[in-house]
Amino acid sequence: MSSVSLKGLGVLLLLVFLVLCSTFDVCDGRRGKHWRQKKAPASSLAQKKGKGKIGGSHHNGGGGQSSPKPSPKLGPGEGCPVATQAVMFNVLDFGAKGDGVSDDTKAFEAAWAAACKVEASTMVVPAEFQFLVGPISFSGPFCQPNIVFQLDGTIIAPTSSTAWGSGLLQWLEFTKLRGITIQGSGTIEGRGSIWWTGSESDVDPINARLSAKMPQIKPTALRFYGSYNVTVTGITIQNSPQCHLKFDYCEAVQVFNMTISSPGDSPNTDGIHLQNSIDVSIHHTDLGCGDDCISIQTGCSNVYIHNVNCGPGHGISIGGLGKDNTKACVSNITVRDVNMHNTMTGVRIKTWQGGSGSVQSIRFANIKVSEVQTPIIIDQFYCDRRSCKNQTAAVALSSIAYENIKGTFTVKPVHFACSDSMPCSDISLTEVELEPLQEQYHMYEPFCWQVYGELYTPTVPPIFCLQTGKPTSNRIQSDHDSC
Ligand SMILES: *[C@@H]1O[C@H](CO)[C@@H](O)[C@H](O)[C@H]1NC(C)=O
Ligand SMILES: *[C@@H]1O[C@H](CO)[C@@H](O)[C@H](O)[C@H]1NC(C)=O
Ligand SMILES: *[C@@H]1O[C@H](CO)[C@@H](O)[C@H](O)[C@H]1NC(C)=O
Ligand SMILES: *[C@@H]1O[C@H](CO)[C@@H](O)[C@H](O)[C@H]1NC(C)=O
């Protein structure tokens, strides 16, 4: 070989090397295997870090280590250009015990305070440890962007009432961050059963006495607030006292390849709750819980849900919207390729009387239901008390498509109850085929009230009650109602 071509080869190899190293995945994969490996600390960072106090956290966990010994390490992708090296902050290096008994809250706060200062750093919660962590806030807004929370171990919630004070809305909170990823094969275990008992129907005196000590307000296990570019993947969230995963005022959210699990009879344990969030994608996720698998509340638009399993649970719901005469706006929601098994409803829209605003451009497609009580529901008379006042105002519902919804039901195939003053319009059904699970029992017929739209194909069972065309006189909506 001539020296020219050798030199050329050298340049080529160097290029390949640089490209490989600058590819996030390669460095990521490597560091994934070796993050416990000791490396020389990044000099300037390590020195600055030592002085770092716990920033951005508002909680005192009891009993943790008072002087964590921080020793941030560079990822082992030696040879990678410096800019692509992820800095690791392992909670074990900040004094976490991971024995499932010691309170590791302070160690988590310290590790976060360190990770927060470094762009694209990784906070590591290692596998094969169980970390008892109290209510904690991983909060910006002064954190660097694109932090990764690598969860491979298990985080468990405290079950003593003292950890919860007079009641908190969430246990693990991430707020005001830009680019935050929670990934890994780890588990968030809410140990919620202590909170679930003690409802009126519960007559077990021992459980009632235990749960009497827990505050009335039950926490959501994992909540994101006011954040942009949020990813949750790989992990399992289970047995939350209340909702498992909540997004509030978030934008650009990705949830995929994860599991949510709690018993079908655990009260109010929603799977995923979305509120005031836009550009949300949820896919390849298994959701089993005691309430809605996914609940979409006001202020949500551009939500895309697909390839999700739901059950047990109450199905996928938009609402309840418009409670206490509030205005609700929800639009551009797609739910497709979903399996529902043994759920209370399939796809549901529920609004309270007296609300305003609108729900529009909704598509439910390719929904397979089995043993679902009522697969398709619109309820504009939603009321969770014994009775609610009749009111004329309503959240306006329009442009809602049901396509290819098939399987078995146990109570009623379709229930459309729309408002007299604000009938539902542009409701379309295509290839809806719902069979009663057991022919021998009495089943209800499809029900419609004030619902306008079109059947694009015949349905099973036949639906005769849909009105064609547009609602005429009675649809009243003023400017302040529009979204
Ligand atoms: C979103 O987050 C990912 C991962 O943290 C990051 O790589 C990407 O650059 C972010 N995108 C934007 C537009 O900020
Ligand atoms: C899904 O997450 C698990 C960890 O829970 C991981 O092992 C697996 O590789 C992930 N699958 C995909 C397709 O990302
Ligand atoms: C509707 O939402 C999807 C994401 O699910 C988005 O790609 C699309 O642009 C949105 N459509 C409109 C009209 O905003
Ligand atoms: C509301 O209206 C319905 C239907 O007209 C009626 O059956 C019901 O009794 C009314 N409820 C109240 C609380 O007035």
Automatic annotation (TrEMBL):
Residues 37-77 are annotated as: Disordered. It comes from the Eukaryota. Residues 53-65 have a biased composition (Gly residues). Keywords: Cell wall, Cell wall biogenesis/degradation, Glycosidase, Hydrolase, Secreted, Signal. Its main location: secreted. The keyword Secreted applies. This is Polygalacturonase At1g48100-like. It comes from Elaeis guineensis var. tenera (Oil palm).
